[in-house]
Specification:
8-stranded parallel β-sheet; alpha/beta; binds arginine; single chain; metal-binding; EC 3.5.3.1; binds manganese (II) ion; 10 helices; Arginase; arginase activity; 35% helix; globular
């Protein structure tokens, strides 16, 4: 059973709506689209039921192949814009429907460009949602600053409507819905130079791994919650590459020096305890990267992060 918590924004009986987001178009490595199926195969649905949640999940989630646009990508640097745009729009609609019902939206990725949809969907219901973005990366490149052109490095700039995003007309459906003071980062350690400038210029609250080392994860989560407001709905967007590659190796852009197993799970446990979670994303699990044992380890962690964010406790 999930531990007792006063859920402020969810209706009873507790229900989780799972959005299987089998999509890899926001980055170049194949395999991340298999994340959701592998998490489910590993038993996630029964695990969540075991915690006492009603689970709303359609096994036949879309593969998004038919979401590919007929027209060619017209952008010089940004890759795959049309496909990312139509998929994230659909994900936003799904997440919004779940959150509107007072259910917890659990999105299984897929690459992190999907967060344009997940946060777009939760912010459509809760205008004052606070996002806790757990990641090695800031994912706040704009069309003007991205080196790689991979949209999984850009979702936050689109959610905020930063410079250069409005010109990307395919993503017109996404209206700026996230103010610079409604997000807190935890775990950063691979931030591009122009992203550092964006974080500074917009005074965005960001805790790097240096800050985690300095204060300890308990204090970091306290500060994040204090900043966003203790009575506000929370959307947790968890990129598994926030964890150290020794912990979660099967992911597309691993960076050493990351969160420990416990630090990652602590974040999920502490956010569950607030009773304020309305949405959780588990992103960038790529079962095609690395040996089977490493893949299994990463899938297990995707499941345990979700479980702890939904009330699994140690005692
Ligand atoms: N969601 C992720 N894993 N993002 C990695 C982004 C890496 C790099 N900053 C880029 O813009 O491409
Ligand atoms: Mn990342
Ligand atoms: Mn990310």
């Amino acid at each position: 059973m999930a531990s007792e918590t006063n859920h402020k924004f969810l209706s009873k009986p507790l229900t989780v709506g799972i959005v299987g987001a089998a999509f890899s178009g926001g980055q170049p490595r194949g395999g991340v689209e298999q994340g959701p199926a592998r998490l489910v195969e590993f038993g996630l649905i029964d695990q969540l039921k075991g915690l006492g949640w009603n689970v709303d999940f359609d096994e036949k989630f879309p593969t998004y192949e038919d979401f590919k646009p007929q027209t060619e990508n017209k952008h010089k640097i940004l890759k795959n814009v049309g496909h990312v745009a139509s998929v994230t729009k659909s994900v936003a609609e799904s997440v919004q429907k779940v959150v509107e019902k007072g259910h917890l939206a659990l999105t299984l990725g897929g690459d992190h460009s999907l967060a344009m949809g997940t946060v777009g969907g939760s912010a459509a219901v809760h205008k004052d949602v606070g996002v806790i973005w757990v990641d090695a990366h800031a994912d706040i490149n704009t069309p003007l600053t991205t080196d790689t052109g991979n949209l999984h490095g850009c979702p936050v700039s689109f959610l905020m409507g930063l410079e250069g995003t409005k010109e990307v007309t395919e993503l017109d459906w996404l209206k700026p819905c996230l103010a610079a003071n409604r997000i807190v980062y935890i775990g950063l350690r691979d931030v591009d130079a122009p992203e550092k400038k964006i974080l500074k210029d917009n005074k965005i609250k960001a805790f790097s791994m240096h800050d985690v080392d300095k204060h300890g994860i308990g204090k970091i989560v306290e500060m994040a919650l204090e900043y966003l407001g203790r009575d506000k709905p929370i959307h947790l967007s968890f990129d598994v590459d926030a964890l150290d590659p020794s912990v979660a190796p099967a992911t597309g852009t691993p960076v050493r020096g990351g969160l420990t197993f416990r630090e990652g799970h602590y974040i999920c446990e502490a956010l569950y305890e607030t009773g304020n979670l309305v949405a959780v994303d588990i992103m960038e699990v790529n079962p095609m990267l690395g040996e089977q044992s490493y893949v299994l380890q990463t899938i297990q962690i995707g499941c345990s992060l979700a479980r702890t964010a939904m009330g699994e406790s140690l005692l």
